[in-house]
Amino acid sequence: MKRKNWLALLLTLVLALSALLAGCSANNNSGTQSKSNNDTSKQTAKADEQVLNLPFGDEPPNLDPQLATDVLSFDILNEVLDGLTRYDQNNQIKPGSGLAKSWDVSSDGLTYTFHLRDAKWSDGNPITAQDFEYAWKRALDPKLGSQYAYQLYYIKGAEEYNSGKGSADDVAVKALDDKTLQVTLKAPTPQFLGLTSFGTYLPLEKSVYEKYGDKVGSDPDKMVYSGPFIIKTWNHQQNIVLEKNPNYWDKDNVKLQTINLQIMKDDNTIVQSYETGAIDEMGVPSSYMDKYKNTPEFHTKAIATSWYLQFNTKSPIFKNANIRKAFTLALNRQAFVDNVLKNGSIPAESAVPPGIPGYNGEDFRKQAGEGYFKDNDVQAAKDYLQKGLQELGLTKLPTIKFLGDDSSRAKQQDQAIQEMWKTNLGVNVELDNVAFKVRLDMMDKGNYDIVFAGWGADYNDPMTFLDMWQTGNGNNTAFYSNPEYDKLIDEAKVNGDLKQRNDQLIQAEKILMNDMPIGPIFFQARAYVLRPYVKNYLVPTFGPDWELKWTYIEGKNK
């Protein structure tokens, strides 16, 4: 999942992440109980209003679930839509946690039969198996152009349909009746149940989505909802208001009545809002870390997200691997996390973060090796630069543009990297800081030289950090291509020998790091402050920034 430069949320990245992650680009800036009064007048304290106020990093780029690719959009979609499965409060998927009350799996691990519960859309219509079949085939329709269509390639016939070599009828997902959905996979896929909670797999009510077409998800009245909340108000570029969904199947376990999301990009504005009580949670900016880190309201959480330089390999300059290596090795990652982030984040010298399980449940990072290059290797960076220039027939680099987000903290971090390149390589780089949605669009179109990007795990497997770099993958906006790499990923996807599969993924990561279409910078954790009256505020290790289904307010009016 593409993540926004929301780096002030970071702190100590724990090496052992949660044992179970489920299956994206990143953003760089996360029952009411009455209280009695013992006063002899028998006055009763005011009941806590179930309203949560949060900052939100930017305008969500796309709330069409089959087209969304970024964490801001998935933050919203996770609260307003349920899939077949939903991760519970313990980060587990169990029968009945989502719209499927149960499922059966064939002995060969290929056929899943899901049995849906009785549930309704927010418009009162029943949620059916046909809604899932329609949504999944819509995601695979080549005319839609979903960047995440490849997440359904585990299904028999899905890749063929999406690539124009097959038809929708060949896709092995079928509604047997209104409450029964049958899916047949190409090969056993251990992470498949996790994927059924992911955004691209979320259901659509066919009649509603056919009515609004390209405007699906653009405004509250152009969506229907199957999750805990609905979008009540969306003032674009300003705020989003979520309200409890009265038709939600599990509404008795949803306590919050309203969630106010205020779009904020400036750190000082965010801090001031927290101090005045206008918001109830805040990712701690690095410049305020000392102020908050020893307070009772301070929390940290490791998340499975990597941040990296992404090079446009179609660029006349960055098509050269040695130039890419020069820009990567010239960075002092330890200094960056110590002096810029100031939060204990871990320098990254590989693509897959620590804590992701490899063969036999052991840490993939330990099995593959801790890293593939030396941090702050300035001399090697200079040598690579000279070699690359010679190969390109140049004596010096043209103007290089470095794309990033436009929040105050993103600009600060980009400037730090810019200065390292100037000091260590003697290279002047121009910054191009734009809104998150604009940055994603520029990446998709290849309108950049280098971009500061992030990727969060969609599921608990190294594949979530590796298959996106295959040739032609919808999320491969580096436009990287290596046939040997493609072959290893393809083989790993259908390999039933888990040890051999793991070895193939290790080999693939080595190729990726040798070619270096991305230059790893750090692995992320999240540091935030939260008001003590906000209870059961969950920060997942993967996927969205928060899970609010079970959150409630208690003790605010003491």
From TrEMBL:
Its main location: other. One of its GO terms (cellular component) is outer membrane-bounded periplasmic space. GO terms for biological process: peptide transport. It is found in: Cell envelope. Residues 1-22 form the signal peptide. GO terms for molecular function: peptide transmembrane transporter activity. It holds the Pfam family SBP_bac_5. Residues 96-476 form the Solute-binding protein family domain. InterPro entries: Peptide/Ni-bd, SBP_5, SBP_5_dom. Keywords: Signal, Transport. The keyword ATP-binding does not apply. Belongs to the bacterial solute-binding protein 5 family. This is ABC-type oligopeptide transport system, periplasmic component. It comes from Thermoanaerobacterium thermosaccharolyticum M0795.
